[in-house]
Amino acid sequence: MSDLLATGLSTAVQNKIEDLVLQGKLQGGDKLNEVELAELFGTSRGPIREACKGLVQAGLLTAVPNRGVFVRKMDVREALEVYDIRAFLDQLIGQLAATHGSDEQIQELWDIHARLDKAVRADDFEAYYPENLAFHEKLLEMTGSRRLTTMYLSLVKELHLFRRKGLIQQGSMDVSNAEHALILEAIAHRDPVKAGLAMRNHVMTAKQRLMTAIEVQSVSEQIAS
Amino acid sequence: MSDLLATGLSTAVQNKIEDLVLQGKLQGGDKLNEVELAELFGTSRGPIREACKGLVQAGLLTAVPNRGVFVRKMDVREALEVYDIRAFLDQLIGQLAATHGSDEQIQELWDIHARLDKAVRADDFEAYYPENLAFHEKLLEMTGSRRLTTMYLSLVKELHLFRRKGLIQQGSMDVSNAEHALILEAIAHRDPVKAGLAMRNHVMTAKQRLMTAIEVQSVSEQIAS
DNA sequence: AATCCATCAATTGTTGACAATTTACCACAA
DNA sequence: TTGTGGTAAATTGTCAACAATTGATGGATT
Q: How do the domains of chain B map onto residue ranges?
């Protein structure tokens, strides 16, 4: 347990369980057994229950009285709902980043963008993925709003619940990074409105990709039946 | 305990403690004693700890390892930060309400607005306050987005942490309800953009009122010293 | 008087045990 | 075969006791 002393045992356990959910090792609808988890982490049930309570509040688990806690099931409708909110928050993030970001931070964005571009040309998704995360985390940092950051990250985590089999979309890196360029230019020009719209557009196209992917999957399932 | 069977003991306790915080009976920085709360609610410390874990995750309490949990202290900077996010979310709420709200719901908004207007003319804040809540809750309902609703309510709860002594602003009911009228008209005309901007403006003026109130308080404190 | 240090009380962290409820299993009857 | 009831196992909910840490008290020393 990494942060045992820093935040206590129950929080460490909470992060561990969260990882299990986010990595998909615990999938939507799965039941969490308290004694199983307890002996897995080498603790008693007390801290496990506290950890679960936190994850329920975070929206990653759902609790049913006298029956236990389950990994939250997210259907298509909810996922799109969350995407809409996320798109809107991203717009705000773009605006704030363009307003409050320092010149150094903007330079760091350019650096990340260069590495992203390199990954695109090499068609290397493994390299693209972490840099893409870094790009968006840097933008969050530039907003200067701690509350906005936690709220946004919470939404992103929730969206991980919607990772269905066969819906991993690792194409369209080129389009994605072209959008990054538009965002970056707007921020560099200190144009909050433009930056916000570019951010919003960036998420909405991702949502569109997801929707068509779902459509394709749904159709192919229909053919199979 | 009202919802004991529905959601379990720890959740009931969590709501009780949340009420204590929201009503200001527990103020920012106050320490929560587990045994005290346990005998207050007639339970053992287990459910108390679980409840606190949930409230920490919700952002109403902060936990310090080996020292306990405290009511979260929110400074001016954080409060304004939250106001900005809330204003933005309200814009989204306005857009969605104008798009997805039913004609019946719009009629209910008119009804609430009429009662608000009556309270304004009678200068009756006690009557205005609950109807104002109802107005905004109806708008939330009209969005059709459960996630947006919980997220928004969570922010509103957080803002309660910033209730300082002498900052209760119960004036400006007339301006506030005039803004309600603008929102309502835009929604009735099914104009999402206009409705969103009216909502955003509604919160921003509230933020402005808060800022000037803080300024006044700060100045008067300086005089007193 | 101020500072340090030892000791003890108070509080949090964790655990194992017990109660209550749900789930699984199996015999039995229709 | 299907459905039903009942009993036992498994699991969650709650509690009280113990361990570990922190905070307070009071005297000794400078």
A: 4-71, 76-224
From the candidates A90, A147, A150, A156, which should be mutated to test the interface with B, based on the most B CB atoms within 10 A?
A147
CATH of domain A76-224: 1.20.120.530
Cβ partners under 8 Å of residue A114, min gap 6: none
Residue with tokens 């916000």: A196
Give the helix ranges, DSSP H, for chain B. 4-7, 9-22, 34-41, 45-58, 76-100, 103-121, 125-143, 146-160, 173-188, 192-224
Residues of A in contact with B8 (CB under 8 A): 63, 65-66
pLDDT in tens, B88-98: 999 999 999 99
Going B203 to B207 to B209 to B210, the CA torsion angle's sign is: positive
User: Across the interface, do A63 and B6 touch by the CB < 8 Å criterion?
Assistant: no
Other CB atoms within 10 Å distance of the CB of residue A147: 19
Phi and psi torsions of B68, nearest 5°: 115, -170
Q: Which CATH number fits domain B4-71: 3.40.190.10, 3.30.1450.10, 1.10.260.40, 1.10.10.10?
A: 1.10.10.10
- Protein-contacted bases of chain D (C-beta within 7 A): 11-17, 21-23
Percent of chain B with pLDDT over 90: 81
Q: What is the pLDDT of residue B1?
A: 47
Q: Nearest 5°: CA angle at A105, between A103 and A109?
A: 115
State, as a whole number of angstroms, the distance between the CA of A21 and the C1' of C15.
27
Nearest nt to the A44 alpha carbon by C1': C15
Q: Rounded to an integer, what distance in angstroms lies between the CA atom of residue B39 and that of residue B36?
A: 6
Least CA distance to B143: which residue of chain A? Answer: A81
Asked whether this complex has an ipTM greater than 0.90, the answer is: yes
* Other residues' Cβ atoms within 10 Å of the Cβ of residue A36: 11
Q: What does the pLDDT look like over A136-189, one tens digit per residue?
A: 999 999 999 999 999 999 999 999 998 776 666 666 888 999 999 999 999 999
Task: Say whether residue B134 is in contact with chain A using an 8 A CB cutoff.
Answer: no
